[in-house]
Amino acid sequence: xxxxGTEKNVRKRRGKKGGLKQVLLxxxxxxxxxxxxxxxxxxxxxxxxxxxxxxxxTRGYMKLGDETAEVIDVPGTYGLEPTCEAEExxxxxxxxxxxxxxxxDATNLERNLNLTLQLLEKGVPxxxxxxxxxxxxxxxxxxxxxxxxxxxxxxxxxxxxxxxxGVKELVESIPAASAPRLPAxxxxxxxxxxxxxxxxxxxxxxxxxxxxxxxxxxxxxxxxGIIIAAVVLVGMFLGIRFVGESLITxxxxxxxxxxxxxxxxxxxxxxxxSGVIHDVLLGNTIVGQVxxxxxxxxxxxxxxxxxAMVLPYIISFYLVLGLLExxxxxxxxxxxxxxxxxxxxxxxxxxxxxxxxxxxNVPAVLATRILESKRERFIAATxxxxxxxxxxxxxxxxxxxxxxxxxxxxxxxxTLFFVWIILGFILNRMVKGFSxxxxxxxxxxxMPPWRTVLQKLWFRINxxxxxxxxxxxxxxxxxxxxxALGVFNAIxxxxxxxxxxxLGLPKEAVVALAIGFLRKDVAVGMLAxxxxxxxxxxxxxxxxxxxxxxxxxxxxxxRELGLAGLLKASAVMIVVSLAVGGLxxxxx
Amino acid sequence: xxxxxxxxxxxxxxxxxxxxxxxxxGMGMVNRLNSLGIRPGKKITKVSSMLMRGPVTVxxxxxxxxxxxxxxxxxIVELEQ
Lengths: 588, 81
Hints:
Chain A has 24 helices and nine strands.
């Protein structure tokens, strides 16, 4: 299913842009293709220090002489026999490309050349970008470029994509791309050929371990590894809290209070303090002051929720996550978590989509493509959409539930974590098939380049601003209109048995549950005016987190799992969220 | 003749090195490992292994790989004396 979808996409894209020359960036995972891509096209894409950052393809354009060429950032692949969906996409792209830029990690010549030779066997015109060239000397490696060029029969350009070194030369070499078309070889023959190339061009001098390498080893050893993981995760949590809360307390709250409140009050008195338009724009609780959370006006809550409650946490979460990604810690966490994840029917690498889900479930579900089997992808995506709350929802939980005491926040998180584990256990038993084993490359630790960290942060914040804010404003507008029409009362009466009887929430809370389909942050915000007890607020937040994912996640679930997968996942969501909500209601 | 000792990657101690002798798995597994550079004759060093049937971390040239417990059991290494 998924396979056919991608194939169709490739054809469609080909048909549309048929006239342009197509340049493919191909190479092993985590060699810096996405960084080269950004350099060539100016299009910003997410690049990180772990294999599998790019799971779909990104397209951009560059000047090639006086024509424009299409450049495609292809997901990394170790060989041309695909083992996961991301690699399958890579193979399909190869069929349509005119020129391949094979990005090679110069510090891992032997393994990278395996793909290089396979590409040469396909007979596509190619140039080689020998990336991470600056790292070669540090590692005591020297490479004879001229000889390598002769042996491969294609241009070889040393590059340092992070700084831009060599990119100009790379572009200039594209017209000289050649296709020696090697004969197809067996694995053994190919490795022999690679062995002989490496012997002729590369010299490695022995050198002592650096402290960074010692740290690399320590983080995959059982005891030191667990200590490092604990420090990293606690540090991550505290860092996110600190940055997020500081932004709210010192920047955004004062901005709203001192600059925006007077404007709102002025307009309010201008409009006479009431009326339909007044209520839609400014909300209904203005009595000389503005309640930004409860008023539910477009210009009050509609701006305050995204900018002053959610945005600070989006910034802090993605800043901290971006650092962890670029340092190269995440694959090590995958190694540590592997045993536990196997109990959930997954393997350690599934921790990466899961962590991404704490930011936004949409890229997280897409990132499940790094997992090999359909079964794993179903389990991972279902667990993410049920038990992994996105940053927007978490920010609102901290804002609203946090006011009642941190122990209530802890109950929300504890419940979700518990559900994640138990549901994983159950899905592992119930979903047919087997779980493949972990087999991943662990990148070296690198000092995160500030430029990529900040670019990536901006890229993600920009995504939030552009995609979330229109929906938040739209949701608030819809809420106001439906309230005015009295539609919600009818729904509330209809669903009262479940909402009140089972979950112990006032019947109006159903409106929040329904809005949760649009935006989770607005939905949690809607619980604020209902005068809930702390227990009810916890139940409401947990059910909102677990119940239907927001519409954007819903769409990717459909695309990634297919209709049958989506229906199954939705059934699990409804059953589990009502069961857990009901149970919490009984306990609290 | 020096006697060569064969062990699985799982049985190796951290810090030990050897050469891969054979891979007792199906074509799929052999191919996957092959594309990552793990193949008969390749020098391999065990870095660490996780507790409770956790993955084994190995070093090949300057690449580090984590290999699931079951797979590690099927990779047979000839230890260096």
